[in-house]
Amino acid sequence: MTAAMKASPSLTNAMGIASIPLDELKKKYTDERSQFIEINGLNIHYRVEGDGEPVVLVHGIVSSLQTWDDWATELRKSYKVISLDVPGYGLTGGPENEDDFNEEFLINTFAKFIDVLELDRINLAGNSLGGYISAQYASQYPNRVKKLILLDPVAYPQKTPWVMDFATLPGIKQMGKLVAPPLLVTANVEDTYGDPDRIQEQHMARYVHMSQRPGAKTAYIKTFEMLKARSTQEVPMPFHSITAPTLLMWGGRDAWVPVELSQRWQEDIAHALLKVYPTAGHMPMEEIPEITVKDAMAFLNGDSIETTDYAAFANSKAADHLN
């Protein structure tokens, strides 16, 4: 309750009724690195920092490019780092016609973004929904991705989070396009962390503020519907065509996309390495940035990292549960 109230600029915002004007959000969440580019009718917000081989960072559901800030600070010392607000989120926003907002639109817009920035061969890292977009891109354009890092990516059938189930209920989803109480947002953020005590105040405030961008409520509900539908569909994935060396990074306490699903990814990407962070949740790059970016840098640089044997991890997890 305290976090939700602190992040709300007014009582109507605290009730989840009001929006925060886009100009106000731009003043708060852009800086000298921020750029905007028109693609598929959207004014995409992105940042470019550093020099070297390009590393593109793709955030997940209900997030924004700032989730990568700690990673970008380290990566830009050796790489050219490009992060973007995925369509529907951050300062980018969604298409005018909400019916156009679907998987194909997200993947197509991302592919055009890479083309317009004239990035020929990239390193790519994606979290959650951003992991799905990244994996789809790497499978469709295998010659354009040098190395791939997927952090707690979505894709396969699974039990969905409570907020997604609630938000997509008949009647609730219509209301959710009009009202999004910050208290629900803060509870959701706490659910995505392995240890809620690690949540920094500026991150929590950002999640609340971005949820009140004009049009955000509709984009959030549309994404929940998209992922809810995917969670029940057992369809062949194209990820076997990914040729880039791949690292799966996973929070061992991920309540949104269980670590067990890493095995589905390793079945489809046979060469993929796995690193589990036992105490982290759904966004390890934000929750434990120092540890995860160190592993990411080592992987990108071609150095060895200590990987996780999933069977051994599962056995130790079961033993801890019994004790």
Automatic annotation (TrEMBL):
One GO MF term: hydrolase activity
> What's the source species for this entry?
Oleiphilus messinensis
Keyword presence, Iron-sulfur: no
Cited Pfam families:
Abhydrolase_1
Q: Does the keyword Hydrolase apply?
A: yes
State the superkingdom: Bacteria
Arranged from A to Z, the UniProt key words for this protein are: Hydrolase
Q: What is this protein called?
A: Alpha/beta fold superfamily hydrolase
Q: Which InterPro entries match?
A: AB_hydrolase_1, AB_hydrolase_fold, Epox_hydrolase-like
Q: Which residues form the AB hydrolase-1 domain?
A: 54-287
